Amino acid sequence: MARNPPSTANAPPLPPATAPLPVTATSTSTTTPPPPTPLLNTLSRALNQRQSRSVLRKLTITPPTSIDFSSNDFLSLSTSSTLRSLFLAELHTHRSSFQLGSRGSRLLDGNSLYAESLERSIATFHNAPTGLLFNSGFDANAGLFACIPQAGDLIVYDEYVHASVHEGMRLSRAVSCVPFAHNSLRDFERVFREKVEGDELIRAGKRNVFVAVESVYSMDGDVAPIRGIVEVVERMLPRGNGHVVVDEAHSTGITGPGGRGIVCGLGLEGRVFARLHTFGKAMSSSGAIILCAPVTREYLINYARPLIYTTFMSFPALAAIRVAYDFMVQGNTVP
Fold first, then answer.
1. If you average pLDDT over residues 202-209, what whole number do you get?
2. Angle of the 315-329 helix axis to the 81-93 helix axis, nearest 10
3. What are the start-end ranges of the H helices in 33-112?
4. Can you tell me the distance from the alpha carbon of 179 to that of 203, in angstroms, rounded to the nearest whole number?
5. How far apart are CA 212 and CA 245, in angstroms?
6. Does the pLDDT at position 27 exceed 90?
7. pLDDT band for position 292 (cuts 50, 70, 90)
8. What does the alpha-carbon distance between residue 234 and residue 237 come to, in Å, rounded to a whole number?
9. pLDDT digits 0-9 by tens, 53-65
10. Angle at 194 between CA 193 and CA 199, to 5 degrees
11. DSSP alpha helices (H): ranges in the chain?
């Protein structure tokens, strides 16, 4: 797809180039590789093994004339001149008040009225009681699954669930993390029943079971049987200690009424524990939001380490999310 370069007609002149830094006797040259060490040799062998299996990852640059069959820019909003103009107008509207950087974690100096207003408007759009912004979907999933399951709880997850969920499960206090066959409602019910019947505390409602799925799986584009999963959880755990978490990263802006996602399309907003929506795919921005109950939001603020110990998104990043959502709410992304 063609990409429109930003206009430079009214751009301020570039500052004069500074003199290069002097090279001292202790400086490390960027053109001379460091001498081999046991660690570097180990790293090299691991990379060679990946290359021999044709799974070595590399950074590449997509030619500007290429046709896009692989990115997450589902709605081509990254090349929308209209959305770009709206983004620049949003920056202009707040030109006297916004700062380029957020200045810190949201728990220190990084929070703002603009961010909190954005959270509320996104939560309202997705029919959720509240939401909490994260710098990325990976941070959001990892933070939620690392801190929300309590000691002794259980996590049942789709075998194709995203790596960020696996990262959170690895760090969690859950006593066990058990997969079920991808998108198989029958296998999910088998695994779920086995775990519930085998744990008296779960049956008594004294231990929680979390279920991790994605609404749309990116590699194949298939859709999870969310309604069936919710019904199984509610039937087998009538005491309310079953909690379904849905990653809607690949459905945001694409499915559901007005792009609200599959959970909204199924009318299950009040029957899932939490939803993740991301902004770096169809919304052509960056960041993510966890939609949840107010007490869950407060708990994440206090215990989700990816939120606590990182600098928050800058105002331009928040403004990009705002205008993308406004663009979608106005119906501009509907064919």
1. 96
2. 130
3. 38-52, 81-93
4. 20
5. 5
6. no
7. very high
8. 5
9. 999 999 999 888 8
10. 100
11. 38-52, 81-93, 113-125, 137-147, 163-171, 185-197, 200-203, 226-236, 262-266, 294-303, 305-308, 315-329
CA distance 194 to 192: 5
Q: Give me the amino acid identity at 34.
A: P
What is the value of pTM for the model shown? 0.87
What residues are paired with 292 via a beta bridge?
A: 130
User: Which among 261, 292, 247, 285 is positioned nearest to 139, based on CA atoms?
Assistant: 247
- Sequence-distant (6+) residues with CB within 8 A of 292 are 128, 129, 130, 131, 132, 273, 274, 275, 300
67: pLDDT confidence band, cut at 50, 70 and 90?
confident
Residue 236 has which token pair? 């087998």
For 191-223, the DSSP string reads: HHHHHHHT-HHHHTTSS-EEEEEESB-TTT--B
Residues across the chain: 335
The encoded tokens of residue 84 equal 């770009």
Distances in Å between the Cα of 207 and the Cα atoms of 30, 173, 298 are 55, 12, 21
